[in-house]
Amino acid sequence: MSQEFNRYKDAKFSGVDAIRQAQTALLRQHLSYAQKNSPAYLEILSGVVAAGFELEQLALLPFTEKKDIENAPQSFLAVEPNRVADIVLSSGTTGRPLQISYTDQDLVRLAYNEEQAFEGCGIQSSDIALLTCTIDRCFVAGLAYYLGLRARGATVIRNGHGMIESHAEIVRSLRPTVIVGVPTFLRKLGLTMQKKGQNPAECGVRKLICIGEPLRGKNFETLDLGKELETLWNAKVFSTYASSETITSFCECSAQRGGHLLPELAIVEVIDDEGRVLPAGATGEIVMTPLAVEGLPLVRYKTGDISFLEDSACACGRFSARLGPILGRKSQLMKVRGTSLYPQAVFTALEEIRAVSNYYVEVASESELSDRLVIYVSLQDQNCTREMLEEILVAKLRVKPEIILEPEATLKQKIFNPASRKPVRFCDKRSVYVR
Question: For the chain, does the N or the C end have fewer beta carbons within 10 angstroms?
Answer without folding.
Answer: C
